[in-house]
Amino acid sequence: MSEEEIRAGDLTTTATKQRVIRCAIYTRKSTEEGLDQEFNSLDAQREAGEAYIASQRQVGWRLLAQRYDDGGFSGGTLDRPALQRLLADVEAHQVDCVVVYKVDRLSRSLLDFARLMDRFDQRSVSFVSVTQQFNTTTSLGRLTLNILLSFAQFEREIISERTRDKMSAARRKGKWVGGTPLLGYDVDPGGGRLVVNPKEAQRVREIFELYRRHRSLHTVVAELARRGWTTKVWKSKKGRRHTGRPFTKASLRLLLTNATYAGKVNYRGVVYQGEHSAIVDTALWDQIQVEFRDRQRPKTESTRSEQKALLAGLLFCQSCQRPMVATYSMKGERRYRYYVCHQARQNGWKSCPTKAVSAKLIEESLVGQLRVRLNSEAMRRALHLPARDWQAFLHDPAGLVPALVESVGYEGGSGTVSVRLRALNGTFQEAQH
Fold first, then answer.
1. CA dist., res. 415 & res. 433, Å (int)
2. Does domain 5-155 have CATH number 3.40.50.280?
3. In the prediction, which pLDDT does 117 show?
4. CB–CB of 311/402 below 8 Å?
5. CA–CA dist 419, 406 (Å, integer)
6. What are the residues whose beta carbons fall under 8 Å from the beta carbon of 258, sequence distance 6 or more?
7. CA distances from residue 12 to 19, 21, 94, 124 in whole angstroms, order as listed
8. At 212, is the secondary structure helix, strand, or coil?
9. Which range among 80-84, 293-297, 348-352 has the greatest average pLDDT?
10. Res. 55: pLDDT tops 80
11. Is the pTM here over 0.85, yes or no?
């Protein structure tokens, strides 16, 4: 440790008994490029900060030994590990002054910077930028600081716009511009392009073939689960392993509608020819897209009308401990309402023993049991149910069920319905039939 450095909390002063100002240097670089060099940007920022603190030694400035270096973190967010450690030390009154090379090293967001300054002020912590001289204790100094931050935020937004324009141009040329790797492709280590993974590509072709044969997301999800097939397993540049997940209807649909597999790139609804090789025949891909579009229900007034689902948000599958969602099917002009387990809906019909139940059947069963139980004056007193509400329930159960019923559990195998009632004063009663 150099003569200028002290440890946090060490308030040892010189012979002149002057107040020690404990200084923390914060450094940041937006990208990881060049951080592996022996002397990088973070080192240069810290060296400038150390020199400035040394020049103020006669007024009691001392450098803390702790390093607060954020390499590869954007200034547009406060979610940075070193910054969070610095803020924790500020809250613990272990820092008296925060030193940065430039204002935008701390933050490029004017709103975030204002919040940081407020936290510093609350703990009587001063802020110094080595290359931009101003005094935050005066109104003119604060105006200067806000002007500098406004330009920093403007610069950040300009950089973001240029990046978006560059990515848009790359997309229009059919280039892959990054993101989560897709099943069937690997990212070329020598450059940002997709190369076919033969083993995974064969699996993707089989998934498309399964859907062409069965024409059902439920059936294909169940078959993929039986085979133990998952989404892409991949490693990030930092070596972090991302495990594959079992397919759901949503993830399967995303795979089947991804233009990448047809050798194309979709950008803002426009499909361009891609630079990478196709895995699936274009005719098959187009056929499946047409089928998905034809299956979409037209947004008519009838489909937007509210369903009369008495147990919406209340009914749960006892087997899966998942919600049962109100839905319906049409046969001619007749609508059949039912509740389907979210597990079965998402992962295939065979994934849940309960599957679904007729809405009319379970609603009438529940209301009938409630009529029997609430016919007891003792039960009504236990639930703090006034006489007027009981009479209203007899004529229109829908108005009182959401107020009295906390949850309903349905077991498809045995047909058991478990009801948890909520007293109007907040207590609960369990019931089962």
1. 9
2. no
3. 84
4. no
5. 8
6. 182, 266
7. 9, 11, 13, 20
8. helix
9. 80-84
10. yes
11. no
Place of tokens 């990212």: 187
Q: Does domain 185-295 have CATH number 3.10.129.10?
A: no
Ramachandran category for residue 72: left, alpha or beta (phi over 0 → left; psi -120 to 50 → alpha): left
- Residue 369: helix, strand or coil by DSSP? helix
Six-digit token string for 307: 């369903």
Residue 403 neighbours by CB distance under 10 Å: 12
Comparing C-alpha atoms, which of 153, 136, 154 is closest to residue 98? 136
What are residue 324's DSSP bridge partners? 341
CB count within 10 Å of CB 410 equals 24
Q: What is the pLDDT of residues 283-299, one digit of tens each?
A: 888 888 888 887 765 54
Q: Cα(387)–Cα(287) distance, rounded to whole angstroms? A: 62
Name the helix (H) or strand (E) containing 158: helix 139-172
Q: Are 333 and 426 in contact (CB under 8 A)?
A: no
Separation between Cα atoms, residue 41 and residue 31, nearest integer Å: 10
Give the number of other CB atoms < 10 A from CB of residue 35: 14
* Cβ–Cβ under 8 Å, residues 151 and 69: no
Tokens representing 422?
Answer: 């909520």
Structure tokens that stand for 362 in this block: 């379970």
CB 204 within 8 A of CB 280: yes
Convert the pLDDT of each residue in 234-251 to its tens digit. 887 777 888 888 888 888
Cα 324 from chain centre:
24
* pLDDT (0 to 100) of residue 318: 87
Residue 292 is which amino acid?
F
The full DSSP string for 215-279 is: --HHHHHHHHHHHT-BS--EE-TT--EE---B--HHHHHHHHT-GGGGTEEEETTEEEE-SSPPS
Residue 333 CA, chain-centre distance (Å), reads 41
Measure the CA–CA gap between 426 and 393, rounded to whole angstroms. Answer: 19
Which residue type occupies 67?
A: R
Q: What is the spatial distance between Cα 277 and Cα 396, in angstroms, rounded to a whole number?
A: 62
The rounded distance, in Å, linking the Cα atoms of 261 and 276 is 9
Residue among 423, 420, 424 at smallest CA distance from 410: 420
| 51 closest CA partner among 152, 113, 128, 107 | 128
- Altogether, the residues listed in the chain come to a count of 433
User: Is residue 384 over pLDDT 50?
Assistant: yes
Domain extents in the chain: 5-155, 185-295, 315-432
Question: If you average pLDDT over residues 39-54, what whole number do you get?
Answer: 91
Q: At what angle do helices 387-395 and 359-374 cross, to 10 degrees?
A: 150
